[in-house]
Amino acid sequence: MIEEKGILFILSGPSGVGKGTVRKELFQQKTDLKYSISMTTRNKRPGEVDGVDYFYKSREEFEQLIQQNKLLEYAEYVNNYYGTPRDYVEKTLEEGHDVFLEIEVQGALQVKENFPDGVFIFLFPPSLEELKNRIVSRGTESTELVLNRLKEARNEIELMDAYDYVVVNDDVGLAVEKVQAIIQSEHLKRERIASQYKKILEDEL
Ligand code: 5GP
Description:
Layout: E1 8-12, H1 19-28, E2 34-35, E3 38-40, E4 54-56, H2 59-67, E5 71-77, E6 80-85, H3 86-94, E7 99-102, H4 105-114, E8 119-124, H5 128-138, H6 143-157, E9 165-168, H7 172-188, H8 190-204
Helix pairs in contact: 1-7, 5-6
The structure holds guanosine-5'-monophosphate.
Residues 15, 19, 38, 42, 73, 75, 77, 82-84, 102-104, 106-107 line the site of guanosine-5'-monophosphate.
């Protein structure tokens, strides 16, 4: 059995597009992917669990993590920090597992700088009207926060060019199927597997 490094998948896209829903549905199904749980300074929402949905940190703790270079990427988004733990991602990839990040677009751009071989998937809203409805109907935020998130969403859509794939989220089930197809295809790419097959040939001949 030839040891291979895992592939880093990044699901990103504008606020309210349904990244969290697609990610949760993907992980409901049988998968070998490892989800990287993010750090955040935002308040826990009802039903969320520390260490499952996020690792909840104070601003001081988070800023310390930044200084210690413990984050692979981080972004300040609607007045809160969000970031990806570096050690977990690097170790898990090294062990040969695929890692899945679900993060906003500023962070995704930072990951792209460090991991150009990562697979970047942009989740696209069916329409801006739909996006607005989703952000409003979530109902957990004040009007000001909703407006902020919508403004961010417009700017975020413009960052699509940095991505490898675009998946329209008009139906969660279909979007998940498409993400699974992307994951499967990436594992079949010649440049990823050619060296394995060459080794097999060398061993056998
Ligand atoms: P929420 O507060 O709704 O859970 O998340 C807000 C936004 O932060 C979402 O777009 C989510 O994808 C993003 N996010 C979650 N974790 C991370 C992270 O570790 N880094 C970055 N850059 N964004 C994140």
